[in-house]
Design goal:
Methyltransferase type 11 domain-containing protein, 43% helix, alpha+beta, 118 residues, SAM-dependent_MTases_sf, 3 strands
């Protein structure tokens, strides 16, 4: 990495949050904030936080309960088959994620964001 270069990392957060969407996305593992901070300790200006709390995490948990109830795995086409469902999902999702952004410093989100400089 060049001097004054910036590195942006996104990774799934918290091994205890592993779910069927991780399998679908072929994630290898989830990390903790402390693991990421330890890995990046030789960089300067380290900023690590999580995204997706509280609403995104709640929606993911409810969706995984639904998948277990119907004994199915996630299929992305379910969200694309109905134009109306697609529009409602993304409209409401945008609002909930906007609210979630106000809680980024609470390390309970579904995704870790790390920004570091060399």
């Amino acid at each position: 990495m060049k001097k004054n270069g910036v590195l942006l990392i996104t990774t799934p957060h918290d091994p205890n949050q592993w779910n069927k969407l991780d399998d679908y996305a072929r994630h290898e593992r989830r990390y903790t904030v402390s693991q990421i901070k330890e890995t990046l300790k030789n960089f300067s200006d380290i900023d690590v936080y999580t995204l997706g709390f509280p609403f995104h995490r709640i929606v993911i948990e409810m969706y995984n309960i639904f998948l277990k109830f119907i004994h199915k795995n996630h299929k992305a086409k379910w969200f694309r088959q109905s134009y109306i469902f697609y529009k409602i999902y993304y409209f409401l999702g945008s609002i909930l994620l906007f609210i979630d952004d106000h809680f980024n410093q609470i390390p309970l989100g579904t995704t870790i964001i790390a920004i570091v400089k060399k």
